[in-house]
Amino acid sequence: MGVDLAGFITDMKAHAVEHGFHVHAERHFIESYSLGQAWEVDLHPEEACEGPLEMLMVLEVDPRVILAFEDLVAGHHEFDDEQDERLQLPMFFKWALPPLPKPPDLLILATELAGVSGTTLPVEVSATDTYMSVTDPATRSLSLVCRIDLPLQKIFLRELKTCDVLECAHGVSTWLLDRSAAWLDS
After folding, report:
1. How far is the C-alpha of 179 from the C-alpha of 21, rounded, in Å?
2. Alpha-helix residue ranges (DSSP H) falling in 33-151
3. Which of 19, 41, 104, 137 has the lowest tally of Cβ within 10 angstroms?
């Protein structure tokens, strides 16, 4: 019996809707050489259909992890803490805003976001400065990424609880939306 990752993503999308998200699209990628996979789901809080926040939920799948897990299941082996820690899949939440005329200070932004997301979703903040010409000032775009590791055993047994994660992701999203008006100078 294999791990139903497509079913897991379907459940995550339905669960995200229950937590106030609006799902726009889903993409499934398979890398032909390594057979690595990724599922991307475009979503955002329901109140943000008109932008400016873009958000992705991404599950990355290493086929070696799946095969190792399926070997353990097929052999009817007991799972220990080391195997549970080793057999995990990373899920990313990614937020992006358009170029900001009045960007925030990154250190202050990261500190304030740590207060919003806590230890549930440790958010990394980065920025990209773009120059259209050497005489024009830079325009700054923000990118925020959070990575959580999901135990494959809990995905397989359908015991993974993601309410806290989705609530926190929604909180980060609405917090960013509330502040983006000032950064966009609107």
Report:
1. 19
2. 63-74, 81-86, 106-117
3. 137
What distance in Å separates the CA atoms of residue 96 and residue 102, rounded to the nearest whole number?
A: 15
Q: Which structure tokens are listed for 92?
A: 């990313």
Which contiguous run of DSSP H or E holds residue 180? helix 163-183
Cβ burial, residue 67 (10 Å; 0-12/13-18/19+): exposed
CB 155 within 8 A of CB 8: yes
pLDDT band for 168, please (50, 70, 90 cuts): very high
Query: Identity (one letter) of the amino acid at 9?
Result: I
Quick check: bond before 52 cis, omega within 30?
Answer: yes
What digits encode the pLDDT tens for the residues 6-52?
999 999 999 999 999 999 999 999 999 988 999 999 998 988 887 78
**pLDDT-derived band of residue 79, with 50, 70 and 90 as boundaries?**
low
CA atoms of 10 and 158, how far apart (whole Å): 12
pTM score > 0.85 for this model?
yes
What residues form DSSP beta bridges with 12?
Answer: none
For 130, phi then psi, to 5°, come to -115, 135
CA dist 46 and 158 (Å) reads 26
If you search the block for the tokens 């379907």, which residue do you land on? 10
